[in-house]
Amino acid sequence: MLDTIADLAAITIERIRLAKQIDQARMLAETEQLRSALLTSISHDLRTPLASIMGSISSLRSYGAMYDDAQREELLTTAQDETERMHRFVGNLLDMTRLDAGALQPKRETCELQEIVGSALQRTARLLERHQVSTAYSHELPMLTLDFVLMEQVLVNLLENAGKYAPEGTRIEISAQRHRYAVSIEVRDEGPGIPEADLQRIFDPFFRIRGGDRQRAGIGLGLAVCRGFVDAMGGRIRARNRRERSGSIFEIELPSSLFVSPAEAA
Ligand code: ADP
Question: Measuring from each residue's beta carbon to the nearest atom of ligand 1, which residues come in under 6 Å?
Fold first, then answer.
């Protein structure tokens, strides 16, 4: 009898071990599939702008002399736009890698929010030149303990998305407001908004909403980087849709634990 129980136990343990191995093998196979799909997607996303840059340059080389100024300018603009797009793409990939590796150590610097917004607006000026961009700050915004570069990157990603997804000529508003226990920063646009079911998922790595005029999106890392950076600094980020018109609002909330007291700031 004991033998039978011992045998059964041994068989069960062996089965569990095998099941674990099979499970691991399946997980490995799935991971391998994901890795390969990811590489394909990244290669494709880099290839499209590269093809466009190469096309513009070779056209300028072969026929440049026959083109007028406006035509040459158009080709140069295409090459510049696509180069900037690739630059953003690679930047987001690198940021995501840093986050994944757990290698991100946000600095604790005393920052003025208006200065970070100003700097983010400078970096996105060309992309947003056909939008109406405005800023609004509530009185008595506190100085904050943040990592200037990370916070600037978060705002740049949100502004770039507003520029990509909201039609030219529409308004993009950045506002910062002081509340009792937090400061909130909002980026509002007048674009298509986000389907309610996707409001949470848009912050997941590689999540994208496909179709329509969203074709020229990146690979779905911009918002994942935003969430990773904001979390690392001790804040919170979320998205909602506008009620009164179409468009989305991205809100970053920074708790009062990040406020620098006037005495410290002095
Ligand atoms: P992507 O590189 O695709 O822009 P993001 O992580 O920045 O990746 O955004 C994820 C998805 O969320 C996008 O594919 C887009 O569909 C949607 N999205 C992000 N920002 C906006 C916005 N301001 N308006 C509408 N949709 C947006």
Answer: 161-162, 165, 189, 191-192, 194, 202, 207-209, 214, 217-224, 248
